[in-house]
Design brief:
9-stranded mixed sheet, globular
């Protein structure tokens, strides 16, 4: 049995990860720490587990094998480096950190102490992502010219997001670094890493962080990636739109259907065709983390995409701040 501690209930997904850890046959939550002690005590009482006032004391316990990091994003570097040095395996909410410098420090500690790191990038494992990747692997769309992925909700306008999600220092940003992570890593998966990034953030409700955002990824071949996110949209569907020189693919416009048209296949040449038989979703990121611990393997693809996600988010925030494109190779 892998004994897991939950580090903070700051993030809205903390309860989801706690539940997944308790429901997995090979893991169990045995301890909780929180940077807000009263919140941590309440959660520990709900779970019937030990609450640690001191994170150092928790990490020093040899009976705790791994940690779920759901702290404020600006605490990720210090918390994960300390966990790695204590020999604890790490499952973390995205992003790894708000900048590539801190991300590299975390990765160095993980490698030096030989612990297993997995980042929660859930839409990588979804059946629609597997289906899209299958189409791209067959080159049915030709050379990609545009990828657009959008994810938005009304958490700010309807008032159900916690107030601390508008704390720029804790979060590293707003809609783009939170929701925009998902379309960002999917666009990176489909098109690769761009040469430069141009971002434009909107502040519809006048909060300290953006609640309406678009980031453009610019590619050497002239291709364009469009990443959209928002906290002020009541009925915005999750959307994937991919265009190439030989065809196009649509998902979620607005129904959860995968449509394709391609000149490279007689099956898809005479109008829009639905791909109805989607492949199964892959196991969740948490399940993958458990397997990496059990089989002494590493989450190479997951970490590579998570690192690129951090790099792209840092570039996006910097581009919005400077009001100009930011080249990826200019970052540390």
């Amino acid at each position: 049995m892998i004994n897991v501690a939950v580090l903070s209930f700051w993030h809205v997904h903390a309860n989801d990860y706690t539940r997944e850890a308790n429901e997995h046959p090979d893991t169990r939550v045995v301890a909780i720490w929180d940077e807000i002690p009263e919140r941590g005590r309440q959660e520990a009482a709900k779970q019937g587990v030990v609450f640690y006032e001191s994170i150092e004391d928790l990490l020093a316990n040899p009976d705790i094998h791994g940690v779920i990091v759901v702290t404020p994003t600006n605490m990720h570097r210090d918390v994960m480096v300390a966990a790695a040095k204590a020999g604890k395996h790490i499952f973390t909410e995205k992003v790894i950190a708000t900048n590539i410098k801190e991300t590299n420090e975390i990765l160095a500690a993980v490698k030096q102490n030989q612990v297993k790191l997995t980042v929660s990038l859930p839409r990588l494992n979804a059946n629609y992502t597997q289906a899209v990747q299958g189409v791209l692997d067959q080159s049915l769309l030709g050379e990609l010219t545009l990828v657009r992925v959008r994810l938005a909700h009304n958490g700010a306008s309807a008032g159900w997001l916690p107030d601390h999600f508008y704390n720029k220092e804790q979060c590293g940003g707003g809609a783009m670094i939170d929701l925009g992570c998902h379309p960002m890593y999917l666009t990176r998966l489909f098109m690769g890493l761009p040469e430069s990034v141009s971002a434009n953030y909107g502040y519809v409700l006048g909060k300290n962080v953006e609640d309406n955002a678009v980031t453009i990824l610019n590619y050497k071949n002239g291709g364009v990636g469009i990443v959209e996110a928002g906290f002020v949209n009541a009925h915005s569907p999750f959307t994937i739109e991919i265009h190439g020189t030989e065809g196009s693919l649509l998902y979620g416009t607005p129904e959860e259907r995968l449509l394709i048209r391609s000149t490279k296949s007689p099956d898809y040449a005479n109008g829009w065709t639905e791909i109805s038989a989607l492949p199964p979703s892959r196991m969740t990121a948490f399940e993958q983390w458990v397997q990496h611990i059990q089989h002494d393997t590493t989450a190479d693809e997951n970490i590579r995409l998570a690192v690129d996600l951090t790099r792209l988010m840092e570039a996006s925030n910097l581009s919005n701040q400077l009001k100009q494109p930011v080249h990826i190779d200019e970052l540390g």
